[in-house]
Design a protein that fits this description.
Number of domains: 3
Number of helices: 17
Number of strands: 24
Strand order of the largest sheet: 2-1-10-9-11-12-13-14
Radius of gyration: 24 Å
Largest sheet: 8 strands, mixed
CATH topology of the largest domain: Rossmann fold
Oligomer: single chain
Helix content: 25-40%
CATH superfamily of the largest domain: ANL, N-terminal domain
Strand content: 15-25%
Amino acid sequence: MGVGEVATKFTDLGYQMKVLVETGILGPMRPDRTARVVSTLVRGGTTPATAIKVAAIKHADEAFLVDEAGSLTFSEVHDRSTQLARALARLGLGEGEGIGIMCRNHRGFIETMLAAGKLGSTALFLNTMFSGPQLAEVVVREGPKIVVYDEEFEDLLTDVPDDVTRVLAWGGGDTGDDSLEGLINSADSSDLPNPDTESKFIVLTSGTTGTPKGAQRSSPKGLAGIAGLLGKIPHRSGEKMVIAAPLFHSWGFINAIFALTLGATVILDRRFDPETSMKRVDEYDADVLVVVPVMLQMILELPKATLDCFKAEHLRIVTLSGSALPGGLATEWMDRFGENIYNLYGSTEVAFASIATPVDMRMDPATAGRPPRGTEIRLVDENGVDVPAGEVGRIFVNNGMTFEGYTGGGGKENLGDFISSGDVGHFDDRGLLFIDGRDDEMIVSGGENIFPGEVEELLAGHEHIVEVAVVGVPDKKFGQCLKAFVVVRDSGELSEKDLKTYVKANLASFKAPKEVVFMDELPRNATGKILKRDLVVSLG
């Protein structure tokens, strides 16, 4: 290793320590606690299972989880997840074996995930919007030995193989001997030895254009990734977080891990309701609200009298990810609730790529921001050659936190250490990243390359449009053309001609949709992503 590389490593380590001190993750502690924390980290590494052990040492009697069943401290969650791990081991769950979690946002999800980590097992996060056949297909493909589920999903388990053990997490009878609570109460909480196999996590891709794939990842190695994020988003130790984003999605999951690392209190509701989430923000003087963009939109669509009741006086951070942030939504929020929006751009496969801060979005609310420290982005053409600023290229990311491949085999295209995000975008002359669409959505219309995302962004900023999706469809004359699906605030406000004229006035005329369909709502998945495949099917 050369002198320059050594200097860079020391500089990076210094930055990481600086961030961890600023957030309060590193700070003064009693000598005996310091020794226990260091020993725990050395033996267990930077895993969620280790994080709950460390949090139980540092913040034992402080509230960690608050849900509809009450409040649990860090120490209680550590003990309960250990008890659950012991009980699951009795049911046959071992190192490297899988446990599926089909739960909404409550303690059972987090305790099961932590128990899997303590056993060195693989936690499979199942989408709560799955149909029965989808659930059965994923369970058969991924092969978990146990599925932990909420009662409302019981009928969906009908086609799941009989040899998969069922454990009820929430609902009628959730205190029985074979329920999650019953299993916890059946075992002792003495510490387990660290497993030889590090736990894995399988997060399913959104499946907006096909069957969801299982993206497997391990815990991050070292602190560079988390330091990069915390260097851009000003989290602080001991803060209170309302996590409305679904825990089965990578965005909800990573914020739960942040909370463990920060010693933060997490407030959960099983189902998202815009008014309830804002009430939780005020009730608990929350510092952080974790959502996906459609949730923010639903909050802002509440009646003015309802919105005016929310003070959100302590709300320093509103973090979003999971889907595109419609034009103007961030500005509308910040005009009402202050400069607190942080929008993360990434994917299940690459984790994160860039973060737009309030300053970035005041410059341009359509931006995806800038890569945090420790993350690199390359924009390349179809030959893998880097494109200059201002030109559209395929997005490749390197941050040390990318996934390990799909469980069914294969992975994303890569250029060395850089992995494709599946999108195309461009940097402007200020260094701000903009997402222009999916790299597989580009259409060629009359010889012109068109990315639907550019047209969507323009239309989403129209004052009378609530949401929009644009897709490519076959066209006899031009080969392909654009078709727009639009939801307006009040019917009759806009005509098809109005929208075509609006696009032509702001973009090249060939980018105007050939047809516009007005709808009451657009089909979405659990994280708010628009299901374009459903729109394409609806074309007949």
